[in-house]
């Protein structure tokens, strides 16, 4: 079919008039496959896997079958980006997921599937359940090919030993050669077929990938052996063909298994949201697909079930397991009014939840979109390695030819096999694997700790920072008021009575201070409520009037009991109690700052719009290196830009968005606004600041592993190449060496999955 397309492309369509047997011409070929994928242009089908940013632009993820190495990634990405209307095409080598951004006015979705088919790959809309079946099918295919190659290798080796070591007549030797040929045929045509298939794709795209030298080596060992068998002259090397194929397949399979181990945690997020939801309609429970939920729907979640959407609990209490999202394994007690995240699991209790976000815009959908964005972006070092690998293959082919020519004049009988060894032993698979497997492993580790990198450059940038800047409110502090202390001014009032009275009053206020009293709401009923803007609130409980608010509003001229945010509760002319509320530091803030200073040796900063006195109080506890108070969003940006060294910014508010975008790398808290999360390079899903030093240590370790992998790939080739060129390595040893080098890179990257201790 490639020939048919070439004939048409050259304007030689008249060729088909002279054919005695009809064959499918290119236009028929294109129409048949276009109609095969045309259903993907249906908007209803697209709703299942396409994310639309606007009516004309969309992004979607495909699961690609047939990926064998980094060359496949290069081919697919480069070809798709040549097409008009495709703005982004990024293929993840670890999980074989292709992320595409497309202009629907310039190109149809079906045309993307057709183009992949032309390249020799099969794409399907990514579905977690289908991905598992694809992986299982690929694994079974590997095992069958390895089994055939292994059996063939063992039988051919027995024949070879008999020929080389035994004193047998030429008739029996010829019989063993024919037997070896028959045993090698399934290995050559079936077990090694993926290498030929990938090599052909590379050659058609004019890109030299790793499978080109591999396929050449197998073919160049097999064809002369067949000639020698038919002519009954010369030597046969069926054992090299079978052994070479077996070890290459085994190495690829082990590499495949290791990469799939890394990809499991990447795919697990997609499995958190259940396929169906129990919706309450007119006091009846109806089971509907989760994707059809809308805002304000009431759903019921039973013990053992996962939440299909974000929402607020309206009835019932439950212990919610959010470990798959935040990394924290202790269930969190939830009650009416509390928020629940899509994907979290109800471990006990029956609750009813009012949906606050449709599944397509839930927090977990945002996480998946940001993860896809991260996986679609490649660090600069990975791009350089991919480009270098292609050039390296060309150098290998040239060296193999020159080595063969040189040895022909020295020892013509060994020239061919030495050139074959050079062709195989220096295949740069390890160089192409060095960066992606390390980044995948470290990202998977961070995900188990509740940290998600949303940009491809995030981990390399995080490893290089030397300064860290914290926003104060909502980052170092909880971001909401809490009751710090209560000072009763009347013997008739205890702390409990004071707090439930304040809570009853503040239940009717929208002021941020009201949140501090929410845990103390009881059964007291308040009437005749009056809210005084920026001053306080008053109302009647039974026949008594109470006022709660600024001391100066209630009792002009009164002296506060100390610094801080104090409220006064009074009744008529009697002052009842002083209540101090404050936005308190997060429990692990001090631990995080000390670890950043001592373990990662970073310089620490705090920026806040709060007054200088409050900033000083915070720093008396945390002991940061630099503090800047009374900062506006604009001056925060200026502060970041004035820092001469690579800087990490950590924030949560909308006012932090500009600062986050100006920093070399940024982290957003789980409580941040959606715009802030999308701006940041990393998300801290569990709000635990103590995880940040761990992330920096892991990022630095990742860079070391990448450098080790690249160094190993280069050192291996520098050692193996001269040995092969001098004839000290045979073809089967070259196959083992190449497979081992790739496997070592993957195993070294697996060290990044270990838990980091700080």
Automatic annotation (TrEMBL):
Q: Which Enzyme Commission number(s) are listed?
A: 3.6.3.4
**Domain HMA intervals:** 58-124
Single biological process term from Gene Ontology: copper ion homeostasis
Q: Where are the transmembrane segments?
A: 142-166, 178-196, 208-230, 236-254, 388-410, 416-439, 710-729, 735-753
Keywords (A to Z) from UniProt = ATP-binding, Cell membrane, Hydrolase, Ion transport, Magnesium, Membrane, Metal-binding, Nucleotide-binding, Phosphoprotein, Translocase, Transmembrane, Transmembrane helix, Transport
Topology in the lipid bilayer is annotated as: Multi-pass membrane protein
GO MF annotation terms:
ATP binding; ATP hydrolysis activity; copper ion binding; P-type divalent copper transporter activity
Metal-binding found in the keyword field: yes
EC class, as a word, reads hydrolase
Protein's cellular compartments? Cell membrane
Cited Pfam families: ATPase-cat_bd (PF12156), E1-E2_ATPase (PF00122), HMA (PF00403), Hydrolase (PF00702)
> In the record, which residues are listed under signal peptide?
none
List the GO terms this entry assigns under cellular component, sorted alphabetically. Answer: plasma membrane
Q: What family does the entry list?
A: Belongs to the cation transport ATPase (P-type) (TC 3.A.3) family. Type IB subfamily.
**Protein name per its UniProtKB record:** Cation transport ATPase
Q: Which organism is it from?
A: Gynuella sunshinyii YC6258
């Amino acid at each position: 079919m490639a020939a048919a397309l070439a004939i048409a492309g050259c304007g030689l369509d008249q060729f088909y008039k002279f054919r005695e047997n009809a064959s499918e011409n290119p236009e028929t070929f294109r129409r048949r496959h276009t109609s095969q994928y045309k259903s993907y242009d249906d908007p209803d089908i697209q709703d299942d896997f396409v994310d639309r940013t606007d009516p004309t632009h969309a992004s979607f993820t495909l699961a690609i079958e047939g990926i064998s190495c980094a060359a496949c990634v290069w081919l697919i990405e480069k070809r798709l980006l040549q097409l008009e209307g495709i703005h982004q095409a990024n293929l993840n080598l670890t999980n074989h997921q292709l992320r595409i951004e497309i202009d629907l006015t310039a190109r149809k979705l079906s045309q993307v599937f057709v183009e992949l088919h032309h390249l020799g790959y099969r794409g399907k809309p990514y579905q977690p359940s289908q991905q598992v079946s694809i992986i299982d099918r690929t694994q079974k295919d590997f095992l069958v090919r390895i089994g055939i190659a292994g059996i063939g290798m063992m039988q051919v080796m027995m024949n070879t030993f008999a020929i080389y070591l035994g004193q047998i007549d030429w008739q029996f030797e010829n019989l063993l050669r024919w037997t070896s040929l028959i045993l090698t045929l399934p290995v050559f045509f079936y077990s090694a077929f993926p290498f030929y298939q990938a090599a052909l794709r590379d050659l058609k795209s004019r890109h030299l990938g790793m499978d080109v030298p591999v396929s050449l080596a197998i073919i160049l060992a097999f064809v002369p052996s067949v000639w020698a068998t038919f002519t009954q002259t010369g030597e046969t090397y069926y054992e090299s063909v079978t052994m070479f194929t077996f070890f290459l397949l085994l190495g690829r399979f082990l590499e495949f298994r290791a990469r799939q181990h890394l990809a499991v945690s990447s795919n697990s997020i997609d499995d958190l949201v259940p396929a169906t939801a129990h919706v309450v309609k007119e006091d009846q429970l109806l089971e509907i697909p989760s994707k059809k939920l809308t805002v304000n729907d009431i759903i019921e979640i039973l013990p053992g079930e996962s939440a299909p959407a974000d929402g607020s609990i309206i009835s019932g209490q439950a212990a919610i397991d959010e470990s798959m999202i935040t990394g924290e394994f202790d269930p969190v007690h939830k009650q009416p009014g509390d928020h629940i995240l899509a994907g979290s699991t109800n471990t006990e209790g029956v609750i009813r939840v009012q949906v606050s976000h449709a599944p397509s815009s839930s927090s977990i959908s945002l996480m998946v979109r940001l993860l896809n964005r991260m996986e679609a972006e490649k660090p600069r070092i990975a791009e350089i390695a991919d480009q270098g690998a292609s050039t390296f293959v060309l150098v290998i082919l040239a060296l193999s030819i020159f080595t063969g020519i040189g040895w022909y004049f020295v020892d013509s009988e060994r020239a061919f096999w030495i050139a074959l060894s050079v062709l195989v032993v220096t295949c740069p698979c390890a160089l192409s694997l060095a960066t992606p497997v390390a980044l995948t492993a470290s990202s998977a580790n961070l995900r188990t700790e509740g940290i998600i990198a949303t940009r491809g450059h995030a981990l390399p940038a995080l490893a290089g920072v030397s300064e860290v800047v914290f926003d104060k409110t909502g980052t170092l502090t909880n971001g909401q008021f809490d009751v710090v202390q209560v000072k009763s001014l009347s013997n008739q009032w205890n702390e409990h009575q004071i707090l439930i009275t304040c809570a009853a009053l503040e239940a009717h206020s929208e002021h941020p201070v009201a949140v501090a009293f929410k845990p103390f709401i009881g059964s007291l009923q308040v009437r005749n409520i009056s809210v005084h803007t920026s001053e306080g609130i008053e109302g009647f409980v039974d026949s008594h009037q109470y006022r709660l608010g600024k001391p100066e509003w209630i009792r002009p001229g009164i002296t506060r009991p100390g610094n801080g945010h104090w409220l006064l509760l009074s009744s008529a002319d009697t002052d009842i109690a002083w209540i101090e509320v404050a936005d308190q530091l997060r429990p692990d803030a001090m631990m995080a700052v000390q670890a950043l200073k001592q373990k990662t040796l970073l310089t620490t900063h705090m920026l806040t719009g709060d007054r200088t006195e409050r900033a000083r109080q915070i720093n008396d506890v945390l002991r940061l290196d630099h503090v800047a108070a009374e900062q506006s969003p604009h001056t925060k940006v200026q502060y970041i830009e004035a820092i001469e060294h690579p800087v990490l910014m950590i924030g949560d508010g909308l006012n932090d968005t500009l600062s986050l975008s100006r920093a070399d790398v940024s982290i957003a808290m789980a409580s941040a606004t959606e715009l802030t999360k999308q701006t940041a390079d990393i998300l801290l899903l569990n709000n635990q600041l103590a995880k940040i030093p761990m992330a920096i240590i892991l990022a630095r370790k990742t860079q070391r592993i990448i450098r080790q992998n690249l160094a190993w790939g280069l050192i291996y080739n520098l050692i193996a190449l001269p040995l092969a060129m001098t004839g000290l390595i045979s073809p089967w040893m070259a196959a083992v060496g190449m497979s081992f080098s790739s496997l070592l890179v993957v195993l070294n990257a697996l060290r990044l999955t270990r838990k980091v201790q700080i």
